[in-house]
Amino acid sequence: MDALKKAEKELDEESSRAMQLGFYRSILTLSRVFGWKKLRIERFLDNAANVYTECRTGDKSLIQMCDEETGIEVRNEADESYLDTPYLCQEKWDRERARYDKMPYKMQRAYIISVRQHMKKWMYAQVMASIILALHRKEGWGHERIVKFLFATDNYKNNQSISELKEMVEQETGMKYVWNGQDLCLVTDDIKTITGVVSETTRKAIQEKLDKQERFDEAFKKFMEGDNE
Hints:
globular
């Protein structure tokens, strides 16, 4: 596989992992510690997804935006600061980009690959920054409540299994969640409201997955009933 494509693929995979971990841990915290129910969780998922998307078109990283708006600096798991990372700090990136523009093509390509590889360790911090921004902007949360939220969320950091976190969240909230590759989707009974999903193709794919599971459950139930006769 081409080195750049490989780096992009690995970054996408890490982004997917980080988003699921961040959202599931946050939902557990919001439900258990703050008593949030379905409607607030659904709204939270929408708001956080919108904030995360904003970074793709903005000039600043989510971590920098979070620091400037809330005064809370989200660091990565190695306790590194975005201020020391050019592509996460706008002021440093402006200077770095001038240097990048003067590089020959092969050096630019190597630089991009290096950045993609380095970004993987920042994906979870980026996700948490988007969640903090959503709580601050849309829920009016201040510094004290956000810090309480972060400390509570840290309780689930030892659990790195996405499937176990998903099961815990669904048992805790009584709601079903589906990861569509880009967003964590809250699926309602009538399938008309799927949080974070705007694509009809994705909506149909999720519906087909649920229908298939329902058919399996019915067949298994009939098999067990027949076995008990």
